[in-house]
Design a protein that fits this description.
The complex is a heterodimer of chains A (322) and B (368). Chain A has 322 residues and is of the alpha/beta class. Helices cover 37% and strands 18% of the residues of chain A. Chain A has a 5-stranded mixed sheet with strand order 9-11-10-13-14, sandwiched between helices. A 4-stranded mixed sheet of chain A has the order 5-7-6-12. In chain A, strands 3-2-4 form a 3-stranded parallel sheet. In chain B, helix 7 links the parallel strand 3 and strand 4. The chains are: A alpha/beta (322), B alpha/beta (368).
Chain lengths: 322, 368
Amino acid sequence: MANLNLVQAINLALIQEMEKDDRVLLLGEDVGINGGVFRVTEGLHARFGARRVVDTPLAESGIIGTSIGLAMAGLRPIPEIQFDGFLGPAYDQICSHAARMRTRTRGAFTVPLTIRVPVGGGIHAPELHSDSPEAIYAHQPGIKVVMPSSPYDAKGLLISAIRDPDPVIFFEPKRVYRAFREEVPEDEYTIPIGKARVVCEGTELTIVSWGSSVLQCMESIEKSSRSIELIDLRTIFPMDLEAIEASVRKTGRCVVVHEAPRTGGMGAEVAAQIMERCFLYLEAPVQRVTGFDTIMPYYKLELNYMPDANRISGAIEDVFSF
Amino acid sequence: MPIKSILKLEIERVSILDEHGNYDEKLGAGLIPDTDLVKLYEAMSSCRYLDEVAFKLQRSGRMGTYPQNMGQEAASLGAAYVLNQDDWLVTCYRENCGLFWRGVPMEAILLHWMGDERGNAMPRPHFATPIAVPIGTQMLHATGLAWASKYRGEKQIACTFFGDGATSEGDFHEAANFAANLDIPVVFCCQNNFWAISVPGKIQCSAPTLAQRGIAYGMPCMQVDGNDIFACVYAVKEAAQRARKECRPTFIEMVTYRLGDHTTADDARRYRDQSEVDVWKLRDPLLRTRKFMESKKLWNSSKEDAMRQRIEVEVNAAVARSEQIVAPEISDVFNYTFAELPSDLVQQRDSMQTHSLASEATVRSEGH
């Protein structure tokens, strides 16, 4: 066991998969000698060399487009897009090619790649460095979308993503990168994509969340006298609907918390699934605590935008007072 | 200090067999043996005939929108002729001739344009990627495929095709930049056919050639007569050698002309003069190849007639086979979304099938 933060856990997962499998290579902007702007790939260039840890030209579509070619040829590329807000230029390659290749060639070509992207706000970053675009990619058939909120989950999920035969976008919440450490096994292990984690058990209300919001939910739960169950989805798509259903049938109440804008956010999908699966078990309407349908504000106001423990506690009380 | 010129550039243009029948013996020496030249001509003729048939199939409602390749057969064929069978051929949709030479069955292309993804399930031994629909994106895939070969220490290279319009796309520039700066063995072949649907070349590029775009990326580049099968073979041969030996990319502008409409959904009379088309009809790659073969006593009208009969039988048989292929199961679209289907998609697939069967049953009972 090692006591690691999220950055170190991901770094360890990368090292172990690269040692195990020569098909795995890293590419992106500043991932080489510099070790990535968040130091997630620290030391890997020295360890594995420029063949396997590649500093590319500054071009996101190019990074993903060439990764698709590498993956079609049977390699396991792990491109890094430096920030969530810079994923846009690669949208066409992700959605028009990576996501569709298996279907449009009936499996003759597949694209096993893992796109690593730091995501979300809360670290006083410049403009376009704090967005949460997970719903955009969860809406595109053919891609899996993962967002761990803890070092332990990050390592196990990243190994699963790298070994997955299909494209995975692996969102790494920046606010969690160095927020805390926990025990992470040094041996390799996997956490299945598509399985949620029950962070704490409860009987009166279910909170469904993911990414850095999970930490705000925990803070709110600690302050509450209610018996609250917290589900960290960990995978945004495919979503662990069975876990949500089982919990809400037990508690009869649900609050969904995410940092991304509200309209069309994945909270809407969670609420709709609960309506379809648990309607007669509900004591109150599902509430959402989310970012707003505004541009993510620059950092002076970012904490006003992101769901915090107070807003979550308010939604919990609203549900109970319904 | 005086201002001095620090860089002088020039672009070479390769032409070996021009439309007047002039043939450069020196450049052409040993390039294409006579027996191969006949086969290449037959391949172009077969592809041309497929265009005629496909056009009629579309007009009679037996096939969807189809992009004719007419006039541009030599470019991709020249490349496919030169490349090794395991070199990647990464194309868009006016490279049928090269794909057929590679061994991709005609049914694969027909099936694709008949609205069936299974046309893209081209068997891997052909090392041909599926037709790329968004413009220019495939150049990055070619760069990645060639990169994978280099990564593994293999000698396989990639050759990618795109049009003049694609050189305006960001992905073209990113692919060229990646390939040049990371030393990736890829050959970029731009079929400059002067028209991106209705938009003329001058809207895509203000420079006198497209070839010179390669200079900006520090890669060798040249322009060739894209309707001259000899010139196309010459250029790709040189570029492929450079890729294989030096791991360096090359940019080749193949000047050709789209004799047909952009697709069967287009009407080129809306935006270009017939007089321009008439000039290019005289530069047709088939025409000059045939004249050249006749001048060398390799070909005559009876051989032409016999070939025509043969390819009519072949193409019509491919059409018949394609039309016999029934629509795939709707469950296919679910089953090929991921290697392992998530449970919610299993449910969607199963409920869709149940509902479809239910609605069919309703229709039947109402019919009675």
